[in-house]
């Protein structure tokens, strides 16, 4: 019951954020956005024809009338039909979001799990050559552009100049083997980029935790290094780790998918967003922006609950 009340309270606090984002997106993309009047008219339209089309599109309505119509679209999550394909926007998202999740999930999980393991290993051997090697490799991974990583992995694994083992483009998944065939190279690209950032962040958190008084006390009582590391250090490091993982979810699904799906030709929400930007498909862009906002609100509500799960001593306020 306490968790339910907390969720409701968090959602109530998120209402101003939702209104703020929708207001900005409305002003930039709708109110001052492209005028579609002349796209729907033939050559040399009359004033009456122009006014009639503008009335049908609602351009002659006052600002707040148009904004509340936009809010209605957001609340009902009904953004009409795509300007490019004529397909219903919700149908497009229903097809593309599962593809993006299926594409990003392996790399997201591996990037975080391997980052935590490497950070623990580096922290256990702090100031040794192993620690320096891991941290230097992390800097290299952070320094290379995501785009360069994608192109390089395509050349190595997907082209005749390299191993030519995996497809460079497309998405035809009908079985588990097909799925593994198509996600292997995108996953390698995602893990390579994420691993550097994750390892450095997690190592910093873990090393800071090793300087706490309770860790020194555990060492004084003769606990083994593995017990101290996993029971005392890692457990107390979970809150910043969980925060980083959870708050990266919206950006990974939408932002990270944008490059991957564009270069690998995978029909997910990232490629849909890219196509919508290049063609000026406002209904699809509006839906993706609102979807990202809703995901962020959900993450903010979820993270405090996860804090309570990893550390029951934390109270929900």
Automatic annotation (TrEMBL):
Subcellular location: Cell membrane
Topological category with respect to the lipid bilayer: Multi-pass membrane protein
Pfam families linked to this entry: BPD_transp_1, BPD_transp_1_N
Domain ABC transmembrane type-1: 97-307
Gene3D superfamilies according to UniProt: MetI-like
UniProt cross-references to SUPFAM superfamilies, sorted A to Z: MetI-like
Name assigned to this protein: ABC transporter permease
Superkingdom of source: Bacteria
GO biological process, any: transmembrane transport
Primary location recorded for the protein, binned into one broad class: membrane
Keywords assigned: Cell membrane, Membrane, Transmembrane, Transmembrane helix, Transport
Family, as annotated: Belongs to the binding-protein-dependent transport system permease family.
């Amino acid at each position: 019951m306490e968790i339910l009340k907390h969720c409701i309270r968090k959602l109530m606090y998120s209402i101003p954020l939702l209104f703020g984002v929708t207001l900005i997106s409305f002003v930039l993309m709708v109110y001052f956005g492209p005028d579609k009047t002349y796209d729907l008219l033939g050559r040399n339209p009359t004033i009456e024809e122009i006014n009639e089309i503008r009335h049908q599109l609602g351009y002659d309505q006052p600002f707040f009338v148009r904004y509340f119509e936009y809010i209605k679209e957001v609340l009902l999550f009904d953004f009409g039909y795509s300007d490019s394909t004529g397909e219903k926007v919700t149908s497009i998202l229903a097809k593309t979001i599962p593809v993006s999740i299926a594409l990003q999930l392996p790399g997201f999980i591996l990037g975080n799990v391997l980052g935590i393991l490497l950070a623990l290993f580096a922290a256990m051997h702090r100031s040794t050559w192993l620690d320096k090697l891991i941290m230097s490799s992390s800097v290299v991974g952070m320094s290379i552009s995501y785009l360069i990583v994608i192109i390089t992995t395509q050349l190595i694994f997907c082209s005749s100049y390299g191993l030519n083992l995996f497809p460079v483009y497309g998405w035809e998944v009908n079985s588990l083997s097909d799925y593994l065939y198509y996600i292997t190279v995108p996953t390698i690209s995602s893990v390579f980029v994420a691993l550097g950032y994750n390892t450095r962040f997690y190592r910093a958190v873990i090393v800071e935790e090793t300087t706490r008084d309770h860790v020194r006390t555990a060492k004084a009582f003769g606990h083994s290094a593995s017990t101290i590391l996993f029971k005392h250090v890692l457990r107390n490091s979970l809150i910043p780790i969980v925060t980083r993982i959870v708050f990266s979810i919206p950006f990974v699904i939408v932002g990270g998918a944008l490059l991957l799906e564009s270069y690998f030709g995978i029909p997910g929400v990232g490629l849909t967003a890219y196509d919508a930007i290049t063609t000026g498909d406002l209904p699809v862009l509006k839906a993706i922006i609102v979807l990202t906002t809703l995901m962020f609100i959900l993450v903010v509500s979820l993270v405090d609950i996860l804090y309570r799960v990893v550390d029951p001593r934390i109270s929900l306020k």
